Amino acid sequence: MDGVTRIGVSLEPELLREFDESISKKGYVSRSEAIRDLVRDSLAENEWKNDEEWMVGTIVMVYDHTMTSVGDKLTDIQHAHTDMVKTSVHIHLDHEKCMEILICEGKLGDMKSFANEVTSIKGVLRGRLTMAAPSTGNLHHIGHRH
């Protein structure tokens, strides 16, 4: 591979066995491929610590639509954040529960606050913000608004 540097890594036998089992279950064909992904994930997590960093991500939540006005509250809050919410997906899970996926873009601090606001609405049973930070050089900016 051009432009690749080989490194050595020392691991205890038990840790290596667990690592090999884990990457095999995930479908990795080599340790190198798995380690590259771990390094990328670690670097991306560092970006998640800077609240001023421009990010893209999702907020996935499950809520009980039979609870009074939870759907209306979720819609109202999304309309109040149209600069951040790029699109949403709504899925009916059963007679009471729905899943909503919000695809968002904005400053990390704003997205954290928005996710906390959305997931704290009474009737939202579970919610999680997941970030996917494009590399800094490639991010200039997907529909960026100041």
Q: What would the keywords be for this entry?
A:
single chain, 146 residues, alpha+beta, four-stranded antiparallel beta sheet, 37% helix, 26% strand
Describe this structure in words.
This protein is an alpha+beta fold. The protein is 37% helix and 26% strand. It is built from four helices and four strands. The chain has a four-stranded antiparallel beta sheet with strand order 2-3-1-4, covered by helices on one side. The longest helix is centred in the N-terminal third of the chain and has 17 residues, at 31-47. It is elongated. It starts with 12 loop residues before the first helix and ends in a 15-residue tail after the last strand.
Describe the global form: elongated
Distance between the termini: 41 Å
What's the tally of helices? 4
Number of strands: 4
Strand content: 25-35%
Main sheet specs: 4 strands, antiparallel
Low-confidence stretches: 135-146
> What does the average pLDDT come to?
86
* Biggest sheet, spatial arrangement of strands: 2-3-1-4
Radius of gyration: 20 Å
Fraction of residues in helix: 25-40%
Structural class: alpha+beta
Helix and strand run? HHEHEEHE
